């Protein structure tokens, strides 16, 4: 339909376009400032209030952070925990979703209602903490992976996806003598690659961004993840007295903070196009069936 | 005449409630047939039993005096003492006030802004611009609160941060925005807007796409301008979506977001920064008052449930549509 545009309408359109462009730019500005700042020297950061391009390029901040064991350890740790954690969480979710997609499996409805109940109610921070402690998982990286291993929401979407695949695929495989596990591995998983990639990415972002779990479960500074390290570097000082900041702490130069933020943000920005492609669909499925 | 009836009844009974052994055998056969599927199901079921239902059982310590070496089961029952202690504590009104003020600020500012942004995006007919703006404003949602807090620390850094200088010159003041209690709430709402408003528009944009286009044509023929069309057609068209999102938001009201508040809390702003979520952490984890803090957490969840059912009831009463 072609809407006839009045003069007032055109003025509104122009103002709207300008306004939305500004919103987009303002959203982006903090990143640009931080990226520019990470390549600038200390004097420039202090002298110039705001800039999107450093006068003098320097890699000093990056050279410094990559030379400190605390940062490199946190970075490597976080990458490894994210990779292993994503794999564990995805495998657990898929192996649970597949049997639940079988309509004639007894006990399926009961388990599904327990899953939905767990979506609405949770034990909360302290009982979960005590459980992790009783399981001996304090100061273990499993504490960052296992308590949130299966996201009920992702489980339900993957289950629904398996259900919607044509049943003939499985039937013909069964006639050829394939086992249930064989069907899952050789037929269903190759078909669900895009879906699995999406949820793998969601799990990975969840682990990478997680601050609460390491705060609760890791008290050993040497085990800190990147988010914990970032918090220590950027917080002005330990005003809280929570003991979560090293007592021998000396506030770092601004440029170092900029560089650490860039490193912690980079993976998310790299994967963002993939995330953006899928999350809209995911959110809408959730809003319909959730 | 009676015999067939009895027979029929007996067969009917057999059909509806088969004898127990047969049923058990049926399940055994079923189980044997699907043993691989049950095996695949096992890790997931164990996960839910341990990590989801375990803590729900652990909530019982809210009614106990939890002693670590006695465990959840061995600790003595104390009734509702933990709850009465909390309500009598001067912290309680302060926490409730802080939590509610932040919740209402988010609900009153961030929520309408999401709808307005969605409406403005919906009016854009230049699809390149629309897609570009959407791509940009969705990004912050995927960043951690640690990064959002760190960005705030840099932008508002004392004396040298660009926004520190901007805001202070705007108001002709010279305050440390990061530690001034008066600035805590605006800062939290600002972060929330920056991080989540963009992504929040997705649901509303999807709803806007379903509004009947013929109504617009009719309205144009009747001479309705741009704003009247939005007011009389667009907004009523997405009313049910707005109500559902509002109910969900109200249900989440007391969940102020632990990570965000914790990261922005410091010794100078605690009078306004302490909310239920962070209080549970400080009292429970750092001070070891496990039972008391579990009671606080449980109270918060119960209020959340009451809020969500209450709002749903109200919206059904006044408006026909509800969430469930």
Please name the two chains that share the biggest interface, counting residues whose Cβ lies under 8 Å from a Cβ on the partner chain.
Answer: A-B, 101 and 97 residues
- Which residues of chain A sit in consecutive blocks of at least 5 with pLDDT less than 50? 238-245, 286-290
Distance between the termini of chain A: 34 Å
Supply the number of helical segments of chain A.
14
Q: β content of chain B, as a range?
A: under 5%
Brief sketch in words of this structure:
Chain A is an all-alpha fold and 290 residues long.
Describe the structure.
The complex is a heterodimer of chains A (290) and B (324). In chain A, 71% of the residues lie in helices and 0% in strands. Chain A has 14 helices and no strands. In chain A, helix 1 (7-38) packs across helix 14 (254-289), helix 4 (69-100) crosses helix 8 and helix 11 (193-209) crosses helix 14 (254-289). The radius of gyration of chain A is 24 Å and the shape is globular. Chain A starts with 6 loop residues before the first helix and ends with a helix. By secondary structure, chain B is mainly alpha-helical. Chain B contains 17 helices and no strands. In chain B, helix 7 crosses helix 10 (181-209). The longest helix of chain B has 33 residues, at 91-123. Chain B is globular, with a radius of gyration of 28 Å. The chains are: A mainly alpha (290), B mainly alpha (324). The interface between A and B is large, with 101 and 97 residues.
